[in-house]
Amino acid sequence: AKNPVRVLVTGAAGQIGYALVPMIARGAMLGPDQPVILHMLDIEPAAEALNGVKMELIDAAFPLLKGVVATTDVAEACKDVNIAVMVGGFPRKEGMERKDVMSKNVSIYKAQASALEKHAAPDCKVLVVANPANTNALILKEFAPSIPEKNITCLTRLDHNRALGQISERLDVHVSDVKNVIIWGNHSSTQYPDVNHATVTTSSGEKSVREIVTDDNWLNSEFITTVQQRGAAIIKARKLSSALSAASSACDHIRDWVLGTPKGTWVSMGVYSDGSYGIQEGLIYSFPVTCEKGEWSIVQGLKIDEFSRAKMDATAKELAEEKSLAYSCLN
Ligand code: NDP
């Protein structure tokens, strides 16, 4: 039998955490034959609720779940973890300025970076979910210099899946027949959902989405804004932000990263830019990636038209601004 993998979830008593931990315990993240030990971290005010989640995990009698650590101690939570899913963060409340939230999250991610650096397994893979996800991941990377930069990523897979979902609804085809959309840039409303390379499997073979969706107007405007603003639409409908879809996409992100993307398919991940596609180095930016043997690589050589270029640059510009705001909070 395989040795258990230790998976950390921060903010585990929150709503994404509550949806995510049972998925991990059922094998949705690491596969149906991979035992796991869950490490759940939350802050003191949530300690009792966190313990309640632990009780429910025990009650669910998951065969793959070999242990549960529920704690408010960051060092204990990070001890020997192989995967870290960072969901905990300070939410933006009414009347708060961007800078206020940024400064709170910068200090949280700085502290958690140090804890991971000291206590996590040396090959630990990190996925940041909490917003501003790209910039939190960048701060984490800066303050955990011994963790390879390739191991620090942020979540844009939910946006990617939302884009697949919109195409599938529009064409009335199954979502698994749609692939290779791209989310470029920031996990924010400046993200650019790009369908120029996306395809649909039909009874007469693989067709490009541009070829089948003849309404360019829809693809170039409504499709993009629907994906960008889907989070707000969910909040309006549910009076709560998305949680089950966020949790599910976090599992997709880690699963594909660890176990590999299917041949001919790419996914979107926020990763440390190496300058690909003219995106400045030193930002955590969402790119199309394929994964093999636990390593992602950016898909190269895609043709970028003028429309895409402008949108890719606009979201990079926002990330550069967030980065300088984050650094100003450090001082
Ligand atoms: P959620 O579980 O709903 O969300 C957690 C984080 O994920 C938020 O930052 C949220 O951003 C972000 N997020 C990223 N992508 C998405 C998405 N697509 N949909 C929804 N959220 C997304 O928040 P809760 O308040 O329920 O839980 C947060 C937990 O974190 C709590 O248990 C709390 O105790 C803990 N916490 C930990 C802190 C720490 O570690 N120091 C500090 C503060 C809280 P957004 O806010 O923009 O929706």
From TrEMBL:
Substrate binds at R92, R98, N131, R162. It catalyses: (S)-malate + NAD(+) = oxaloacetate + NADH + H(+). One of its GO terms (biological process) is tricarboxylic acid cycle. The active site is at H187. Residues 156-324 form the Lactate/malate dehydrogenase C-terminal domain. InterPro entries: L-lactate/malate_DH, Lactate/malate_DH_C, Lactate/malate_DH_N, Lactate_DH/Glyco_Ohase_4_C, Malate_DH_AS, Malate_DH_NAD-dep_euk, Malate_DH_type2, NAD(P)-bd_dom_sf. NAD(+) binds at G11, A12, A13, G14, Q15, I16, G17, D42, N105, V129, A130, N131. HAMAP family: Malate_dehydrog_2 (MF_01517). This is Malate dehydrogenase. The lineage of its organism: Eukaryota, Viridiplantae, Streptophyta, Embryophyta, Tracheophyta.
